[in-house]
Amino acid sequence: MTMKALLARLAHQWPRKVAAVVLAFVMWLFVSTAETGTAQRSMLVPITTLGNTPDQVVVGLPPFAEVTVSGPTNRVDRLRPESIEAVIDLTGLSGDFQAPVVVTPPQGVALERVNPNEVLGILERVTTKQVPVQVVYLGTPPADVRLRSASDPDVVTVRGRAPRLERVAQVIVAVDPTDGVDAAVPYAADAAGRPVDEVTIAPASITVTTAAESVLVRREVELELELEERPPRLVSATLDQESVVVAGPPTVVAALGTLRASVDVPTEGLAGGRYTRPVTISTPSGVVVVSEVTATVEFAPAPADD
User: Fold this and answer.
1) pLDDT band at 26 (very low <50, low <70, confident <90, very high)
2) d(CA 120, CA 97)
3) Which of 14, 45, 175, 248 has the fewest Cβ atoms nearer than 10 Å?
């Protein structure tokens, strides 16, 4: 291709070609400026502590510090809270303290400000104590049974700050009121059963074994004599006592009214006079008569033969 032909091709639609070159230059300039420009950004960074011993806990410490940094836009935009450290050094401190929040930004990023840049707090000692386990039942236990539960372990270790630990009077574990073995998570409570927070319990799970036992109660119930068949010479029939003691499930015994008492009276073969006869008492299923009941029956003399 000759130089003349090349120039002719370049001159063809030259306005469009010049516009394309200008647009490419503007785009390059924009990208280059964005990559080399500076930006400022604020983020919440978790505050961590250094130098406190395992038997100390920090009270009043804010969970986050607002950290503002500046630097190249492409680097600042990629920052995450975990890329920055906000540390309070508590080495050798105890009780009330005032300490600065030390922030270390990544290389190439400048620290502008920290809020708060200093914190006030308290270093409290963490202690432990042994606390008995109290088993409670969820919902309503079955009627007419007594539940007996055993927890393993029956005493646990509660750990926390002294003021909190003083409130803990018991460790409660709630289980289903049925026979069997259940594993449950305990919680610390005061003497009134209100939960106490900010303490830990070891072990974190307790095994509870529950067994149901039938409950029997006693009650004195009135009797009513009934004769299914009245012999011809029977003069009278009376119970030797007006009531009887019975035993059975609480709900059944509580609902009892008068019990029916029947006397076994022979219809013939007895001479005139008084006799003591056994009494049969009708009771609901599960209810038994504790004492024996008798009745006195009187017969008229047999008529003389003509």
Assistant:
1) low
2) 6
3) 14
Structurally, what CATH architecture does the domain formed by 217-299 represent?
A: Beta Complex (2.170)
Q: DSSP 3-state assignment of 2?
A: coil
- For the chain, the C-alpha Rg in angstroms (whole number) is 47
Q: pLDDT tens digits, residue range 220-278?
A: 999 999 887 777 888 888 999 999 999 999 999 999 999 999 987 776 667 888 888 88
Q: What are the backbone dihedrals phi and psi of residue 107, each rounded to the nearest 5 degrees, phi first? A: -60, 135
pLDDT digits 0-9 by tens, 153-194: 999 999 998 888 999 999 999 998 877 888 899 999 999 999
Q: Break the chain into its structural domains and give their ranges.
A: 38-116, 127-214, 217-299
- Specify the 3-state DSSP secondary structure of 97: strand
Could you give the CA distance from residue 195 to residue 187 in angstroms, rounded to a whole number?
A: 7
Q: CATH classification of 127-214 is 2.170.120.40, yes or no? A: yes
Fold of 38-116: RNA Polymerase Alpha Subunit; Chain A, domain 2 (2.170.120)
What is the token pair recorded at 91?
């080495």
Q: How many residues does the chain have?
A: 306
Is the overall model pTM greater than 0.90, yes or no?
Answer: no
Joined together, the tokens standing for residue 195 give 């939960």
Beta 259-263 vs 217-226: how paired, if at all? parallel
3-class DSSP assignment, residue 41: strand
Q: What's 77's DSSP letter?
A: H
Burial-class residue 155 by CB neighbours within 10 Å (0-12, 13-18, 19+): exposed
